[in-house]
Amino acid sequence: MNRKELHPDSGPQAAFGARLRSSREKRGWTQDELAGRMGYSSVHISAVETGRKPPTLRFARSADRALGVEGTEDSFEREWREIRHGSLLEGFPEYVGHEGRAAEIRLYEVGIIHGLLQTPEYASVLAEGAVKRGAITLDQANERISLIAERQAALARKPPPLVFVVLDESCIRRPIGEPAVMDAQLARLIEFAELPNTVFQIAEFTMGHRSPVRLPITVLTLPDRSLMSYAESSQRGHLERDGKSVLPMLTAYHQLQAEALSQAASVAMIERLRKGIP
Predict the structure, then answer these.
(1) pTM of this prediction?
(2) Domain limits of the chain?
(3) pLDDT over threshold 70, residue 246
(4) Position 115 pLDDT exceeds 80
(5) What one-character-per-residue DSSP string does 174-226 give?
(6) How do 237-240 and 162-168 pair as beta strands?
(7) Helix (H, G, I), strand (E, B) or coil at 228
(8) What class, spelled out in words, does domain 92-116+151-274 have in CATH?
(9) 52, exposed or middle or buried, with CB in 10 Å at 0-12, 13-18, 19+?
C-alpha cells in the first residue's frame, strides 16, 4: 500500500491531517474503519490526512465523536477553529466553539456593543476602523465580520441558549459610525430584549462604586452544567474552567444584575436616546 509521507510543519491544514492519521493509527483503525465511524468515505479521510482537502467544521466534529475527544482541549474542532480564524486573538476561536454549544451565556460589556448583538453595519464600522489604524488587514476585517454572523446564527439553534446581557451605559452612548448606523444598532438591542430567551439590562453610569465588575466578563454554562469564563488581555484570550475561579465571577455577575436597570427601564433608556432625549 502506498503511504504518503506527511509534513505537518508545512502548515495548519497539514498538521490537522497528520494528527488525524496519528490518532487513527494509535487506535489501530484503517481509513475505512474511521470513515465508517465518521460517516465519510475513505477517499475523503485520505484527502484530509494528506492535506489535499481542507477539513470542515462538520468533519472536525465527526472526528471528535469518533475519536472520543469531543469538547476537550485536544478536540479537532478546536484545531479547525484555529485554522479557520488564525488571525483572531489567541484563545478566542476555542471560546467561540464553547459559546456555540452553551446552554446559558452571561455577558457584560464596556465601551462597545458586544459582538453577539452587533448589526452588520456596526461591526463593519469597527472593523474598518481597525484596518485604517493598521491593526488588521482587509481580509482579517472581513473574517471578523463573517465570524460575528456565524456566532449570532448559532444562537438560533434549537433549543436556543438563555442569554443574559448587561451593557455598561457607555456602550449605548458612544457613537459608532453615522447616526443611522447607531440608530439601527439601538433598535437591534430593543429587538434582542424582546426575545423569549434573553434578559437585557443597562448598567448606568450612576452605579459608580456599587458596580462589582469593572472589566468585560463572560460566563458560560455548558450543557453538562459546568461553568467556564472568558476574558481578554491585549495579547490573548483566557478560558477558565476551574469552578473555584469561575464561581466568584458568576456571583459578581449576579450582583451586577441586581444593581443594573431592569429590562423595561433599560429599553426605555434606549428609546429615549433614539429620540434625542438625554
Answers:
(1) 0.70
(2) 8-84, 92-116+151-274
(3) yes
(4) yes
(5) S--SSHHHHHHHHHHHHHHHTSTTEEEEEE-GGGGGG-S--S-EEEEE-TTS-
(6) unpaired
(7) strand
(8) alpha beta
(9) exposed
What does the alpha-carbon distance between residue 154 and residue 76 come to, in Å, rounded to a whole number?
Answer: 19
Q: What is the pLDDT of residue 195?
A: 95
The secondary structure of 67-119 as a DSSP string is HT-TTSTT-HHHHHHHHHTTTSPBTHHHHHHHHTT-SEEEEEE-SS--GGG--
Q: Which three cell numbers stand for residue 1?
A: 500500500
| Cis previous bond, 179, omega within 30 | no
21's CB contacts (< 8 A; 6+ apart) are 6, 49
For residue 204, CA distances in Å to 14, 49, 168 come to 50, 53, 6
75, three cell numbers: 478536540
Superfamily of structural domain 8-84: lambda repressor-like DNA-binding domains (1.10.260.40)
Question: Model confidence over 197-223: pLDDT tens digits?
Answer: 999 999 999 998 899 988 898 999 999
